[in-house]
């Protein structure tokens, strides 16, 4: 246990360092972005194209840095009782227009009167967003996504996100959630790892089931808020 403590000290020191560096990287990125936008407005032809490439590459750096920031956990997390069905609807409405564009139908079926969960709202939204985005990205030619929320035991709520997309080879499933493991041209390979980490922090878990060409179901389980359980 002494060795484990030393390890976790080391990890939290590394986390803090990473968070510090991430913040330091973000500020110059913001000013770079601003100047490139100015440049973009004053040049023409091929140079415009270069500006667009620079902007999208900057956005990619930003995305990676923000995902690393979640991992480093610099923010003080405040757990509060929240209604999951509201969070789910919230996330789905964020994705609605993108889904329409890609010819994807999103269906939600959420049990009435789900008990509250104790969570950091933005982090759980991040998880739902990451998983729904993966489902959408598995449907390049459109398709269906079903989001289901239900109470599975006195203490647990389950949310499952199912798509009828490309699926995953069984031997690749264990690799998902490894840092930087991606099969996408523009992927970061951080979404699932970040999600898993957030769920662990909430005492929850994540499970992936998939069949090649048929689709994928990602289920997460979260503990019910103790207060709300005792009120019921
Ligand atoms: P990214 O989306 O940036 O690639 P993730 O950590 O979110 O990173 O996902 C890692 C990999 O897991 C993806 O590149 C993809 O191969 C696979 N994956 C995740 N979700 C799905 C899904 N719903 N359907 C098919 N493959 C998936
Ligand atoms: Mg992803």
TrEMBL record:
Residues 20-226 form the Histidine kinase domain. It comes from Brevibacillus agri. Signal peptide: none annotated. The chain holds residues 331 to 562 of 562 of the full protein. This is histidine kinase.
């Amino acid at each position: 246990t002494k060795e484990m403590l030393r390890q976790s000290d080391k990890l939290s020191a590394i986390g803090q360092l990473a968070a510090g560096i991430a913040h330091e990287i973000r500020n110059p990125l913001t000013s770079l972005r601003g100047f490139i936008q100015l440049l973009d407005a004053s040049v023409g032809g091929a140079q415009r194209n270069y500006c667009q490439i620079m902007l999208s590459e900057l956005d990619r750096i930003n995305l990676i840095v923000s995902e690393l920031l979640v991992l480093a956990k610099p923010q003080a997390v405040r757990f509060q009782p929240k209604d999951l069905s509201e969070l789910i609807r919230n996330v789905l409405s964020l994705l609605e227009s993108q889904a329409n564009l890609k010819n994807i139908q999103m269906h939600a079926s959420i049990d009435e009167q789900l008990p509250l969960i104790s969570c950091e709202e933005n982090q759980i939204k991040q998880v739902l967003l990451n998983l729904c985005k993966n489902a959408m990205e598995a449907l390049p030619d459109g398709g269906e996504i079903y989001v289901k929320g239900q109470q599975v035991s006195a203490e647990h709520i389950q949310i499952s996100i199912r798509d009828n997309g490309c699926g995953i080879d069984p031997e690749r499933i264990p690799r998902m959630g490894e840092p930087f493991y991606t099969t996408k041209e523009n992927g970061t390979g951080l979404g699932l790892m970040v999600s898993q980490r957030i769920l662990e922090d909430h005492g929850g878990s994540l499970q992936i089931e998939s069949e090649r060409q048929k689709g994928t179901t990602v289920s997460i389980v979260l503990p019910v808020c103790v207060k709300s359980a005792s009120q019921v």
